Amino acid sequence: MSRRQFTLDEKIGIIGRLENGEKNSVISKEFGTCSSTISTIWKNKDKLKNMFQTTSLNAKRLRTAQHKDLEEAALVWFKQQRSLNVPISGPILQTKIDQLAEKMKIENFKCSASWIQRFRQRHNIGFGKISGESSAVNTDICSNWLANVWPSLRAGYCDDEIYNADEAGLFFKLTPDKTLRFKGEKCSGGKLSKDRITVLVAANMTGNDKRKLLVIGKSKSPRCFKGVSSLPVFYENNTKAWMTSAIFEKTLNYWDDELRRKKKKILLLVDNCPAHPSLQHLKFIKLVFLPANTTAVLQPMDQGVIRNIKAHYRNQLVLKMIEDIENQIESKVTVLDAIIMLDKAWRNVTSTGIANCFRHAGFCDVTTDTTQLQADSGLINNIDEDYLQIDDDLITSEIQTDEDIVDNVIANQQVELDNDTDIEELDDEFETVPSISEARAALRTLERFYYTKYEGIDAERKALSFLETSINSNTKQSSIKDYFKKLNKN
Predict the structure, then answer these.
(1) Beta strands in 172-283 (DSSP E)
(2) Do the beta carbons of residue 69 and residue 410 sit within 8 Å?
(3) Distance between CA atoms of 296 and 119, rounded to whole angstroms?
(4) How far apart are CA 450 and CA 458, in angstroms?
(5) For each successive 10 residues of the chain (490 residues), what is the average pLDDT?
(6) Cross-strand partners of 204
(7) ∠435-440-445 over CA atoms, to 5°?
(8) Which residues have C-beta within 8 Å of that of residue 328, sequence separation ≥ 6?
(9) Which DSSP helix (H) or strand (E) runs through 187?
(10) Contact, 363 vs 454, CB < 8 A?
(11) Which ranges in 350-476 belong to alpha helices (H)?
(12) What Å distances lie between residue 462 and 232, 438, 447, 465, 466, CA to CA?
């Protein structure tokens, strides 16, 4: 065989394919080189990954684009096509950039070969052969993958270090009386999108590490966030409340940096959708894509975890609706309400249930007590099936059109005043942020409730004491002094 020189980009691509279980012989045959060359690349994978990241960072530091919005849109489009294994040549990219410039109303712009060259240098893009992926799925692909590919992928990782992440769409305002209005309606944008959010759920195989949820809404800064200093979830946004490749990359970069500080490496299983690009620069996350068209069977989060989160969430939503009726107030749900209830729902999903979902998907032979799972199932059985399943097929990501890409880029560059906020949220303003005195009054109500209704409430008493300390720590000392001054005068 003839000797071949590989670019750094090609070597990183080869490493990624080997990490995802492809055989050396298949790759060497495709590139027309000997297997020892591929083996050498694999042997030097850590060094090559370091070189790739350093080169990429330096390139972004040293070179800036004249039309930043256009460049960002072009990069989003290019990454999307690469995630779909679509081969992109220089002329194809050049034509597409001209089209994007026209849609963004950039005058007197004509994409040249030199512009493409600088674009490639800034983002470390090399145009090599892209291996396609067959859309046909063998009926035995799941069992074959688990038996022949998975063992080598997970080698060196214990159960605590193996994670799965998956998105779910949620009609967060949906109450049982509105279920029929949504039945049969497809929500991929438009009027129903105002009532939906996307949630990214991630946990490890043993269930002892449940990652903080990522919630994706439409608005960058919903009015209900006004005065809120922190959220129990990560929050991102785009015009359709979908997962995008940019949000996915940002999320994993943050997680990778967190793992770097902990000096811990993990394996992360995700499905192969357009919003999940192959990220070769991650140092502490080994990203593994499930085989195409198998996620309904192999995705652990789809085996019951997401269903349980929705059941707990909708249980809280119904309770809130009942409380609002009893208090004779209009029942409404903001994005902040949804986030708080989702966080509670996620905390109610048990580690036992998560571990069993990994086992059910075939990733381990864990034999665990199913008592807690039955308890969760009981909660599900108490909720109307139509109400529970209404958003099971809700779109969480889709191939972005040129218009979607342009709209998102422009929206991200603007300091928006939240024009997408629902009318229901416009009246909230500071009402969603209780005062210190309101918090204290609520605490006293809780104390009276527990002390008059229950016996042996040591755990609750400790929790109430912790809350009181927390509330008092937020009280300004000057206010206390003013109180005693007024008391002495009287």
Answers:
(1) 196-204, 214-217, 234-237, 266-270
(2) yes
(3) 38
(4) 10
(5) 70 77 80 86 82 54 65 82 67 83 87 80 60 42 87 93 95 73 56 79 96 93 86 91 90 95 96 85 93 84 92 87 79 90 94 93 62 48 66 70 75 49 42 67 77 66 74 54 54
(6) 163
(7) 125
(8) none
(9) none
(10) no
(11) 351-360, 371-381, 385-389, 402-413, 423-426, 436-453, 458-473
(12) 22, 21, 11, 5, 6
Contact 236, 243 (CB under 8 A): no
Instruction: Decide: 290 and 299 in contact? Cβ < 8 Å.
Output: yes
**Residue type at 406 in one-letter notation:** V
Please check whether residue 284 is in contact with residue 259, taking contact to mean a CB–CB distance below 8 angstroms.
yes
Residue 291, H or E segment: none
Single-letter amino acid, residue 448: R
Q: Which residue bears the tokens 């060196």? A: 156
Supply 429's token pair: 């303003």
What is the separation, in whole angstroms, between the first and last Cα of the chain?
99
CA distance 39 to 446: 65
* Main-chain phi, psi angles of 210, to 5 degrees: -100, 115
Question: What residues does 200 pair with on adjacent strands?
Answer: 167, 214
Is the entire prediction scored with pTM above 0.85? Answer: no
Q: Which CB contacts under 8 angstroms, 24+ apart, belong to 52-61?
A: 52/8, 52/9, 52/12, 52/124, 52/280, 52/281, 53/281, 53/283, 55/8, 55/124, 56/123, 56/124, 56/281, 59/121, 59/122, 59/123, 59/124, 60/122, 60/123
* Per-residue buried b or exposed e for 222-260, using 16+ beta carbons within 10 Å of the residue's own CB: bbbbbeeeebebbbbbbbbbbbbbbbbbebbeebbeebe
